Every structure is written in structure tokens, then in C-alpha cells.
Amino acid sequence: MNREMTTTPFGRRPMSYAMLDAQTEVKNCDVNVVADKWKLFRMITEARPLLGISDRALAVLHALLSFHKPNELDSTANLIVFPSNRELSLRCHGMAPVTLRRHLASLVEAGMIIRRDSPNGKRYVRRDQEGELKTAFGFDLLPLVVKAIEYEQLAATIRAEDLARRMLREQVSLHRRDIAKMIIFAEEQAFEGPWDALSERFMPLARPLLRGLDRVGLEALAVSLADLRADVEKLLEFNNNSAKSTASDVQNERHIQNQNSDSKFDFEPGFRKDQGADRGDHPDWNDEADTKELLSSHQPVRSGLKPPKAFPLGLVLKACPDIIDYALGGINSWSDLIQTANLVRVTLGISPDAWNQAMEIFGPNEAAIVVSAILQKGESILSPGGYLRALTDKARAGSFSSGPLLMGLLRASTIKHEVEAG
Q1: Are residues 378 and 325 in the same domain?
Q2: Domain residues for 198?
Q3: CA-to-CA distance for 402 and 394, rounded, in angstroms?
């Protein structure tokens, strides 16, 4: 078909500016371009957020590319594919005809393909006596080749943005981890200073989930955490210098550390016994215990711990994915989950005493599961520390197990993904 001819859609489909722009761009392209169709598709997939097309539309585009037999898209060749609706639907894994037409229209509006409709609206090809293609009616893939450089630039922009966000998330995670550990250390050593005020500054900075923040939000959060970290480090340095000065003045005295968990640094201000309690009745979870998991957390391991529940780690992370944002190196074992939960409990305002009691009653693995579940419930729990104490008391009385809590979160996560998938 003559590319210099402006084509219009068959039937009731109207002409649009997007169709005119795509055809004009194809006409004005005087450079021969050759692109690998699958590499080009990968770039388009990366650039999808900037192109304004859905993942289902990309599936339709993938199917259209599969009907072009050569791997290379040459701007000098005929790039019109003419599959029937039935064949196109099959290659789109049985997509409904109405859905298929909607996504084809979105690809046309995005200027990624051009409709070359025949007089009767059918898609077909005419060949000469030698079998060479003479005229074809269907979907022209030429705009993909013409815009190959543009798609590559958009994909590079997305990659650069993702890299910047990953680096910011890493920086924020480091700040959160280090600030939490420094506050824990200062609390254990009973250092002098406005630690209550610092902890109040830290709480709102530790709660937001990183996956929900854009680059601007991450930058602002990183700056606020860096300022707080500088103040914490200065206060620690002052106490450290004071301790060294005291040790040099009294060389024969040994420095005694205050390891009392009930210090003035209160992670649960104004806590009442009934605050945050789970008043629902949950049936016990009757899984077999798994005693082979080792604990490598910096929290003290007490004798007489209950064996952990036999929940697969992958199931826990699927039900409580938000805790992954707080793990710097990922969560690949129960030890990683326990260490991450110990950091998260600081951001949630759970005191060391409440955490240690949960470790003793639940066992380290299940205590980490409960903290992960509390984090996943988010703002629906007004007092995470009080909620954990209430659950610990119920577990001590034998009326609570983390199984129903975990299964409820898993069902909620599954329903959410089904709704988003549409």
C-alpha cells in the first residue's frame, strides 16, 4: 500500500488527531531504520508509564509483532500484519473481542500502529503472479520503527528514574536502620539528652512505606532523616566523650552499663492495658512446630522459647509484603525477618520490654510474624505497642495464635490483587 496516502478507519470509527500525527510522521521519515522487534518491544515495555498505555495493550502489541515473521523491523519493507480477530485473540491468550478492540484502539491513539483498512474493513493481502506481496490491509507497524529512538530515550529516562529512586530508598533505609539502632543503644546505656524528643521526630519519618513515595517524597524524607541523624550522632558523640572523660578521671572504676529496658525512653506513651487490644476471638492454628530454624538476631535469646510455627517464609512475606521495604539486604531467611522486625518495632513505637515479652511467649519467628502483621495493618492500629502487648497476653493465656491473623492478611492481599488486575 502507498504510504503517502492518508488512510481513514473503516465503518463508524472516526478519524483523530493521533491517527493524522502518526501517518504524517511516517510520511516525513526519510531515514532507513532497522530495529530488532523484541528489543524494541522491551524498550516500549520499560517506557510504558510515559506512553500512557496499559499492560493489556502491550500484550496485544506483542501478539501483533509475532505475526511479523522476521526478527528485524525494516522501515523500507512492508510492515503490515493482517491477522484475523480469532488468531489475534488466540495469541492474546483468549482475550475477549470487545477487550481486544479497545486495546487496539489505544495502540492506534498512542501512535504506535496505523490502521490500513480495506474497502470492506477486512484484513487481507494481495500478491502478484510471482507470489510477492503487492497490497496488504491490516495494522502497520512502521510507526514503531520510526519512533525507535524516541522509545529508547523514554526507556533510558525511566531507568534513570528507577535507579535514582532505588538509591534514595537505600539511603532512607540506611538512615532508618542506623537511627533506630543508635536510639536503642542510647536507651540501653541511659545516655543523657532529649531522647524522647528525638524519638518523637523519628516516628513520623519511620512510618511511611517507601514503595508509595515518588522521587520528590523520597528526597524530602532522606533530607529529614539526615538532619535527625546528625542530631542523634552529635548527642551520642557528646555522651561518648563524657564517658571517656569519666573513665580517665576514675581509672580504677569499671563502667557499669544500664541495661534496664524500662528506662525513661518510652516507646508507648500513655499506654493502657485495654488500648489497641484485639477483642475478636480467633481459633488456634494447629500447624506443627519447626524447631530447626536458627536465630541470629542481636536481641538476647532466652531459654524456654516456644518453637516457631511452621509457616513458610514465602507465605509470611506474601501476606505482609510491607516489611520488605525495611530490609536493606532483602529477607531471605527467618533470621533476616527477625532482625528486620526488631528494627520495625522501633518505628512502630513498640518498647524493648514489649518486644522481649513477645519473643519469650511467641518465640522469635512468630513474634516477627506478629510485628510484620501489625506493620501491614498500618494506621488501623492506633497503638502498635499496646496491640502487641494485648496479643502477647492472649497468647500467654492460650487464646491467640498468629495463624488466623496471617491468613486474614493473605486473603485481603489476594482480593486486592484480584481487584487491581480487574
Answers
A1: yes
A2: 163-247
A3: 11
